[in-house]
Amino acid sequence: MVLFTLLLLFFASFTLWRRRRVQIAIVTVALVWAVGAGWFAPPLLDLAQRGYDQTATPAFAPRTTIVLMGGGTDRRGAELVPKADSMQRIAATAALYRRCREAGVSCKVILSGGDPQRHGQAEADNYAPYVLTQGVEPGDLVRENKSLNTYQNARNVAAIVGPADDNRLIVVTSAYHMRRSLRAFQAFGYAPESYVSDVRHNRATFFPRFRSFENSELAAHELVGLARFEVYRWLQLY
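RE: above sequence
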Protein backbone atom coordinates (compact mmCIF):
# COMPACT_ATOMS: atom_id res chain seq x y z
CA MET A 1 0.00 0.00 0.00
CA VAL A 2 2.81 2.45 0.85
CA LEU A 3 4.71 1.84 -2.39
CA PHE A 4 1.49 1.84 -4.41
CA THR A 5 0.46 5.17 -2.87
CA LEU A 6 3.84 6.71 -3.71
CA LEU A 7 3.61 5.51 -7.30
CA LEU A 8 0.03 6.78 -7.59
CA LEU A 9 1.08 10.21 -6.31
CA PHE A 10 4.01 10.18 -8.70
CA PHE A 11 1.85 9.53 -11.79
CA ALA A 12 -0.77 12.05 -10.69
CA SER A 13 1.86 14.74 -10.09
CA PHE A 14 3.70 13.81 -13.27
CA THR A 15 0.50 14.35 -15.26
CA LEU A 16 -0.65 17.57 -13.57
CA TRP A 17 2.68 19.44 -13.32
CA ARG A 18 4.49 18.76 -16.56
CA ARG A 19 7.03 21.55 -16.05
CA ARG A 20 8.14 19.96 -12.75
CA ARG A 21 8.55 16.42 -13.98
CA VAL A 22 12.28 16.23 -13.26
CA GLN A 23 11.84 17.49 -9.71
CA ILE A 24 8.85 15.20 -9.16
CA ALA A 25 10.84 12.19 -10.39
CA ILE A 26 13.75 13.03 -8.08
CA VAL A 27 11.50 13.45 -5.04
CA THR A 28 9.63 10.23 -5.80
CA VAL A 29 12.82 8.21 -6.20
CA ALA A 30 14.14 9.69 -2.94
CA LEU A 31 10.93 8.78 -1.09
CA VAL A 32 10.90 5.22 -2.45
CA TRP A 33 14.55 4.84 -1.46
CA ALA A 34 13.86 6.22 2.04
CA VAL A 35 10.98 3.81 2.60
CA GLY A 36 12.94 0.84 1.27
CA ALA A 37 16.06 1.79 3.23
CA GLY A 38 14.07 1.76 6.45
CA TRP A 39 13.92 5.42 7.42
CA PHE A 40 10.14 5.40 7.89
CA ALA A 41 9.58 1.91 9.29
CA PRO A 42 11.11 2.40 12.79
CA PRO A 43 8.98 5.42 13.82
CA LEU A 44 5.85 3.89 12.28
CA LEU A 45 6.44 0.59 14.08
CA ASP A 46 7.13 2.45 17.32
CA LEU A 47 3.77 4.20 17.06
CA ALA A 48 1.91 1.01 16.18
CA GLN A 49 3.59 -1.19 18.83
CA ARG A 50 4.01 1.32 21.65
CA GLY A 51 3.06 -0.23 24.97
CA TYR A 52 3.05 -3.77 23.57
CA ASP A 53 6.72 -4.37 22.91
CA GLN A 54 7.05 -6.94 25.71
CA THR A 55 5.31 -10.22 26.45
CA ALA A 56 4.07 -10.86 29.99
CA THR A 57 2.13 -13.94 31.07
CA PRO A 58 -1.35 -12.83 32.17
CA ALA A 59 -3.17 -14.18 35.20
CA PHE A 60 -5.60 -17.02 34.62
CA ALA A 61 -9.16 -17.17 35.95
CA PRO A 62 -11.31 -20.24 36.70
CA ARG A 63 -12.73 -19.80 33.19
CA THR A 64 -10.20 -18.50 30.73
CA THR A 65 -10.63 -18.04 26.98
CA ILE A 66 -7.59 -17.51 24.75
CA VAL A 67 -8.32 -15.87 21.39
CA LEU A 68 -5.86 -16.22 18.54
CA MET A 69 -6.32 -13.41 16.03
CA GLY A 70 -5.95 -14.49 12.39
CA GLY A 71 -3.01 -13.06 10.49
CA GLY A 72 -3.38 -14.47 6.99
CA THR A 73 -2.18 -17.41 4.94
CA ASP A 74 0.39 -17.91 2.18
CA ARG A 75 0.70 -20.21 -0.79
CA ARG A 76 3.68 -22.55 -0.63
CA GLY A 77 3.43 -24.40 -3.88
CA ALA A 78 0.10 -26.21 -3.80
CA GLU A 79 -0.07 -25.95 -0.01
CA LEU A 80 -1.77 -23.19 1.96
CA VAL A 81 0.11 -22.37 5.17
CA PRO A 82 -0.09 -19.73 7.91
CA LYS A 83 1.94 -16.57 7.39
CA ALA A 84 5.14 -16.19 9.41
CA ASP A 85 3.47 -13.88 11.94
CA SER A 86 0.58 -16.30 12.22
CA MET A 87 2.95 -19.15 13.03
CA GLN A 88 4.31 -17.11 15.93
CA ARG A 89 0.76 -16.42 17.12
CA ILE A 90 0.01 -20.15 16.93
CA ALA A 91 3.10 -21.02 18.99
CA ALA A 92 2.31 -18.31 21.56
CA THR A 93 -1.30 -19.48 21.88
CA ALA A 94 -0.29 -23.11 22.41
CA ALA A 95 2.33 -22.14 25.00
CA LEU A 96 -0.18 -19.97 26.86
CA TYR A 97 -2.77 -22.76 26.76
CA ARG A 98 -0.30 -25.22 28.29
CA ARG A 99 0.45 -22.79 31.12
CA CYS A 100 -3.25 -22.28 31.64
CA ARG A 101 -3.83 -26.03 31.95
CA GLU A 102 -0.92 -26.32 34.38
CA ALA A 103 -2.66 -23.71 36.54
CA GLY A 104 -5.57 -26.14 36.90
CA VAL A 105 -8.28 -23.91 35.44
CA SER A 106 -10.74 -24.26 32.57
CA CYS A 107 -9.05 -23.14 29.34
CA LYS A 108 -10.59 -22.67 25.91
CA VAL A 109 -8.89 -21.56 22.70
CA ILE A 110 -10.79 -19.72 19.97
CA LEU A 111 -9.17 -19.44 16.55
CA SER A 112 -10.65 -16.35 14.93
CA GLY A 113 -10.30 -15.69 11.23
CA GLY A 114 -12.26 -16.26 8.03
CA ASP A 115 -10.90 -16.03 4.50
CA PRO A 116 -10.38 -12.32 3.75
CA GLN A 117 -7.66 -13.15 1.20
CA ARG A 118 -9.99 -15.52 -0.67
CA HIS A 119 -7.49 -18.35 -0.60
CA GLY A 120 -10.21 -20.98 -0.37
CA GLN A 121 -9.81 -21.82 3.32
CA ALA A 122 -10.55 -19.88 6.48
CA GLU A 123 -7.59 -18.93 8.65
CA ALA A 124 -9.13 -20.65 11.68
CA ASP A 125 -9.45 -23.92 9.76
CA ASN A 126 -5.94 -23.60 8.38
CA TYR A 127 -4.39 -22.94 11.79
CA ALA A 128 -6.28 -25.66 13.67
CA PRO A 129 -3.95 -28.61 12.83
CA TYR A 130 -0.91 -26.59 13.94
CA VAL A 131 -2.52 -25.68 17.26
CA LEU A 132 -3.60 -29.26 17.90
CA THR A 133 -0.13 -30.66 17.23
CA GLN A 134 1.26 -28.21 19.80
CA GLY A 135 -0.81 -29.55 22.65
CA VAL A 136 -4.24 -27.92 22.54
CA GLU A 137 -6.92 -30.50 23.31
CA PRO A 138 -9.57 -30.91 20.56
CA GLY A 139 -12.35 -30.45 23.12
CA ASP A 140 -10.91 -27.08 24.16
CA LEU A 141 -10.66 -25.72 20.61
CA VAL A 142 -13.31 -23.56 18.93
CA ARG A 143 -13.09 -22.25 15.36
CA GLU A 144 -14.56 -18.87 14.47
CA ASN A 145 -14.09 -19.00 10.70
CA LYS A 146 -16.38 -16.28 9.34
CA SER A 147 -14.78 -12.94 10.30
CA LEU A 148 -13.07 -10.84 7.63
CA ASN A 149 -11.53 -8.07 9.75
CA THR A 150 -10.56 -7.24 13.33
CA TYR A 151 -13.94 -5.80 14.25
CA GLN A 152 -15.70 -8.93 13.02
CA ASN A 153 -13.17 -11.05 14.95
CA ALA A 154 -14.31 -9.39 18.17
CA ARG A 155 -18.00 -9.44 17.26
CA ASN A 156 -18.05 -13.13 16.37
CA VAL A 157 -15.94 -14.17 19.35
CA ALA A 158 -18.23 -12.20 21.66
CA ALA A 159 -21.18 -14.19 20.31
CA ILE A 160 -19.35 -17.43 21.17
CA VAL A 161 -18.03 -16.43 24.59
CA GLY A 162 -21.14 -14.74 25.92
CA PRO A 163 -21.32 -12.20 28.80
CA ALA A 164 -18.00 -10.49 29.46
CA ASP A 165 -18.23 -11.01 33.24
CA ASP A 166 -18.22 -14.79 32.92
CA ASN A 167 -14.78 -15.20 31.33
CA ARG A 168 -11.25 -13.89 31.38
CA LEU A 169 -10.41 -13.12 27.78
CA ILE A 170 -6.79 -13.16 26.62
CA VAL A 171 -6.04 -11.89 23.11
CA VAL A 172 -2.99 -13.28 21.31
CA THR A 173 -1.64 -11.35 18.34
CA SER A 174 1.40 -9.45 17.06
CA ALA A 175 2.47 -6.26 18.81
CA TYR A 176 1.60 -4.07 15.82
CA HIS A 177 -1.96 -5.49 15.78
CA MET A 178 -2.61 -5.56 19.51
CA ARG A 179 -3.95 -2.06 20.16
CA ARG A 180 -6.60 -2.33 17.44
CA SER A 181 -7.56 -5.84 18.57
CA LEU A 182 -8.10 -4.75 22.18
CA ARG A 183 -10.13 -1.73 21.12
CA ALA A 184 -12.38 -3.99 19.04
CA PHE A 185 -13.12 -6.26 22.01
CA GLN A 186 -13.63 -3.28 24.30
CA ALA A 187 -16.35 -2.12 21.91
CA PHE A 188 -18.30 -5.23 22.95
CA GLY A 189 -17.88 -4.65 26.67
CA TYR A 190 -14.81 -6.82 27.27
CA ALA A 191 -11.65 -5.88 29.14
CA PRO A 192 -9.27 -8.36 27.51
CA GLU A 193 -5.70 -9.00 28.55
CA SER A 194 -2.97 -8.94 25.93
CA TYR A 195 -0.40 -11.59 25.10
CA VAL A 196 2.07 -10.44 22.46
CA SER A 197 3.31 -13.19 20.17
CA ASP A 198 5.97 -11.19 18.32
CA VAL A 199 7.43 -7.72 18.03
CA ARG A 200 8.72 -6.28 14.75
CA HIS A 201 11.99 -4.38 14.46
CA ASN A 202 13.58 -2.54 11.56
CA ARG A 203 17.00 -1.03 10.95
CA ALA A 204 18.02 1.54 8.41
CA THR A 205 20.24 0.39 5.54
CA PHE A 206 21.70 2.04 2.47
CA PHE A 207 20.17 -0.36 -0.01
CA PRO A 208 16.37 -0.79 -0.02
CA ARG A 209 15.03 -4.04 1.45
CA PHE A 210 11.68 -5.75 1.02
CA ARG A 211 11.36 -6.05 4.81
CA SER A 212 11.46 -2.28 5.21
CA PHE A 213 8.65 -1.87 2.68
CA GLU A 214 6.72 -4.63 4.45
CA ASN A 215 7.18 -3.14 7.92
CA SER A 216 6.20 0.33 6.71
CA GLU A 217 3.11 -1.13 5.07
CA LEU A 218 2.06 -3.12 8.16
CA ALA A 219 2.56 -0.23 10.56
CA ALA A 220 0.81 2.29 8.30
CA HIS A 221 -2.08 -0.12 7.79
CA GLU A 222 -2.52 -0.55 11.54
CA LEU A 223 -2.34 3.17 12.29
CA VAL A 224 -4.87 3.98 9.56
CA GLY A 225 -7.08 1.11 10.74
CA LEU A 226 -6.95 2.32 14.33
CA ALA A 227 -7.83 5.88 13.29
CA ARG A 228 -10.71 4.59 11.16
CA PHE A 229 -11.95 2.50 14.08
CA GLU A 230 -11.99 5.52 16.39
CA VAL A 231 -13.88 7.57 13.78
CA TYR A 232 -16.45 4.81 13.34
CA ARG A 233 -16.87 4.59 17.11
CA TRP A 234 -17.34 8.36 17.30
CA LEU A 235 -19.96 8.14 14.55
CA GLN A 236 -21.55 5.23 16.47
CA LEU A 237 -21.16 2.93 13.47
CA TYR A 238 -19.41 0.42 15.78
